[in-house]
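Q: Please design a sequence for this.
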């Protein structure tokens, strides 16, 4: 007996009954497709999205260790570190990972709104959580690729020691930092209406917080007012925890920093989820 349905019944064989969802749990196929799309998008222009931030990060290292003659050691948490060993981890996470993560996430929905292709994100059978996960996952993938390139280059750079002492801390704070900027990028992409808006967030929020986060100096040497500002900066906890993974010491309690950034990531994820679900500035 043939296993094929009778002629005229093909539609009923592939369509579910009215009101019964075809995809009942996670749409893994759609989630994977959108994630691959996001990854392929930045790989198509890899000179700009991967190699450019990696080279810029290495130039920061060269300028601060060679061109300026900054050779003095830095005291962190009671330990004295060579200056190059001190700034290298901060450059990897702040310039090499968090910057690219924000740039990638802040571009996706924004370019869709500007070009009128936002329906490519909203129309597929993806839940709000699946859409957010794919956007954040693509941005974090770019962050870890650029970060790995920077780490390998610094490992080969003379006079710089970036051998991991606590790999778990490196991965954890790298994950938290990349997610933080990815979610902030998605939030910016939802809010922004033109590229100038995204650039304003980069220039007036991301860049100042990154430069004033203790990447190039120890916050213990600052005046009390500036030290208090640094401790209110979430970038400080990310960089301090990430540096701890390489040098074994930190400017702040690692557990406290981990909890602070984790709480911020959860809050940002909830906000992005609510705005995407509502379709704020996405659905006309």
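A: Design:
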């Amino acid at each position: 007996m043939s296993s094929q349905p009778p002629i005229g019944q093909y539609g009923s064989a592939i369509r579910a009954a009215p009101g019964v969802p075809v995809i009942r749990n996670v749409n893994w196929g759609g989630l994977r497709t959108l994630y691959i799309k996001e990854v392929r998008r930045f790989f198509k222009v890899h000179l700009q999205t991967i190699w450019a931030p990696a080279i810029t990060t290495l130039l920061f290292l060269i300028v601060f260790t060679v061109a300026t003659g900054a050779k003095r050691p830095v005291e962190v948490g009671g330990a004295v570190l060579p200056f190059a060993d001190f700034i290298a981890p901060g450059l990897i996470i702040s310039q090499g990972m968090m910057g690219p993560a924000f740039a990638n996430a802040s571009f996706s929905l924004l370019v869709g709104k500007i070009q009128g292709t936002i329906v490519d994100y909203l129309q597929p059978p993806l839940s709000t959580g699946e859409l957010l996960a794919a956007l954040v996952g693509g941005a974090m993938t770019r962050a870890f690729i650029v970060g790995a390139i920077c780490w390998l280059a610094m490992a080969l750079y003379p006079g710089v020691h970036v051998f991991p002492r606590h790999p778990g801390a490196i991965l954890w704070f790298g994950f938290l930092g990349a997610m933080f900027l990815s979610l902030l990028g998605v939030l910016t992409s939802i809010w922004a209406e033109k590229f100038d808006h995204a650039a304003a967030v980069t220039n007036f929020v991301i860049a100042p917080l990154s430069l004033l986060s203790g990447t190039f100096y120890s916050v213990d040497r600052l005046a009390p007012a500036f030290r208090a500002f640094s401790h209110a900066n979430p970038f400080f906890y990310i960089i301090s925890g990430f540096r701890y993974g390489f040098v074994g010491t930190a400017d702040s309690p690692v557990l406290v920093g981990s909890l602070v950034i984790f709480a911020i990531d959860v809050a940002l994820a909830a906000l992005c989820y609510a705005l995407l679900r509502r379709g704020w500035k996405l659905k006309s």
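Q: Thanks. Anything notable?
A: The two ends are 53 Å apart (CA to CA). The chain has one domain: 41-278.
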